[in-house]
Amino acid sequence: MTKRLFDIGFALVLLIVLFPLLLVLALLVAFTSPGGAFFRQTRTGKEGKEFRLLKFRTMRPGSETKGQLTVGTRDPRVTSIGVLLRRSKLDELPQLWNVLVGDMSVVGPRPEVPKYVAMYTLAQREVLRVRPGITGMASIEHIDESDILARSADPERTYVHELMPAKLALDLRYVREHSLALDLRIIAATIMRVFFGR
After folding, report:
1. In sequence order, which residues have a C-beta less than 8 Å from that of residue 156 and are 6 or more positions away?
2. Beta-carbon neighbour count of residue 151 at 10 Å?
């Protein structure tokens, strides 16, 4: 209950404070390439329940048909404004709405698409016991994931056999140890990593 109240308060305050920025970013995305301002994608949440994750659109329409993994900021499907949004992680800000309505938490395992959740072992499915988050241990540790995939000869294999198990190991650790104090440390670490590179 404490975590949920924190999530609601945190998301509501940020949505109000950042509303002018969100509006400017939405207009930039909408007017610099066709396809609208937002991207919605089906992800798997708590207890395996699917929901529609919200992001600022950073790719050209129809890009998902060419694969669900993004291979670096030089991926030809990524728009010019999308490169900037991805580098700064500002494309994730609309997920504050997902937090407010209860699909997500501020901190938790990143929600996966059903395709990859179907590959989880029984032990790995323990990550579905908690709400997925905007940021988390794995998000910080693997912040350069798309660049790693860009250097791979087989991005799909690298993700499934290397990155996904490594991220899930950290997510399982979070499920075992999560607390409000840990969430605050992860939020602070995310800010330091995204804005200061540390």
Report:
1. 67, 69
2. 10
**Tokens 């999308």 appear where?**
82
pLDDT per position as a tens digit, 93-109: 999 999 999 999 999 99
Residue ranges per structural domain of the chain: 2-196
Cα–Cα distance, 23 to 5 (Å, whole number): 26
| Cβ proximity of 41 and 113 under 8 Å | yes
Cα–Cα nearest to 54, from 4, 104, 129: 104
Whole-model pTM: value is 0.89
Residues 6+ positions from 176 with CB-CB distance below 8 Å: none
CA angle 53, 84, 137 (to 5 degrees): 55
Which residues have C-beta within 8 Å of that of residue 76, sequence separation ≥ 6? Answer: none
